[in-house]
Fold:
Amino acid sequence: MNLLKIVFTFELRMLRRQRLVLCLIAFFFLTGLYSIYDGYHLTKKQLTAIDSLERNYDQKFNELAKNFTADTTTSAGKTSYAQAGIPSVIEYRNPLNAIHKPATLSSLSVGQRDILPYYEVITRKRNAVNAPNAEITNPEMLAAGNFDLAYVIIYLFPLLAIALSYNTWSKEKEQQTDRLLAVQGKHLERIIVYKLGFRFTVVALLAWLLSAIGIISDSQLSSFNLTTSLLWFFAVTVYLAFWFSTCLLLIKLGKSSAVNALYLLAAWCFFLLVLPAITNAFIRQIYPIPLKMDEAVALRENSEAIWAMPKQALIDTFYANHPNYNSLKSATDTSDNSTVRFSAYYDLLGRKMTSVIARYNQYPRKQNLISAKLSWINPATKTQYLLNSITESGLTDYLSYQNQVNHFQKTWVDFMTDYIIHNRTLSLADLHHLPEFKMQPAPGKNTNILTDIFGLLIISLSILFLSTKIKLPL
Structure:
């Protein structure tokens, strides 16, 4: 314990005297602050858009509710009262939005929330190519990406760890103080570990400080969640431990400071540039994703094909899918203005488009599954998955959202169809009890995240154990 105190005290004094290192730490701190601001700005922009959607929906909802008590002594009042409770009018004037709100700490790890739609308009006609679902093709936006705190920790903090640690032992040799340390005998290895431990503490404290600031900042946008915050701190700490374990392993090879720096920068390039590029190219080669424009083509073709179907065949398909309405069969079902025909059209179109969307999503889902498996060969990629999972901003959460939207779409269609097929209108009480979309969290999410963090910790400890088997060359 005395040796640890001596080493930490000495390293702290040396740190205070090294203005360049202090400036470097200050630079990373300011960079982290900017990343927090950038993520906060993007998340706030999305929340502002969501708030606008919700206020617009409430405003139109109140207008529809007023139709039930409209003044029938005027022409406009008679029209409003006559339209009160008509399902198609309600759906047209005030369509429901299935919203995927930013989760806790999503401003710290934006993930793919900037390029994936976070709300969908729900009607009986499943429109997969409406505004929120249109594919983003702005090359400048796609090239720039996000500069959030997760990016700073995953990509930039390893460089700080390298800058502080590359000469932990080689500097002693170059200053010819290694012989003096060698007098310590068996304590020499411990001294080097303690010196590197001090540098880990400095970097970890900086990461924790930025994370604490980010959590406080994010709490202004969404509710604070202690479990999510602890998982974030745990994941960040284990990731930094991986890099310092790697530093210790390469440092104990006994090379010069220049060679150590070269080796460590090569490791940084391998884990953060080369390996992700190779795995992404491999995954895209195996599971290429088709153009999203195919959904627009499918919508147009299905719309035309279903409407061109023989009326009786279309209606028979509807009754086959909804046997609970068989008692309502009538000879007038095949008339041009039959509500059954329109219901059958929207029902079949919705089923086909849901199937099209499901087929399209299977490609990114397959990519995501194999990416998650291959991420274990790269701790940096695994950490990115972990942080995105903690903040619910990754592709996995988006695919879960899409799946829940598909289920809710059917719920909405069945609800409206029941009124239309029975030629009934909604009462004011029915209007206040419309189906609502609520995003459900994945079951066992925190347990899976904690398991992955422990897996990453085992990798770090394995590297650390391997480094203990290497003797420092004197």
Notes: Confidence is low (pLDDT under 50) at residues 131-137.
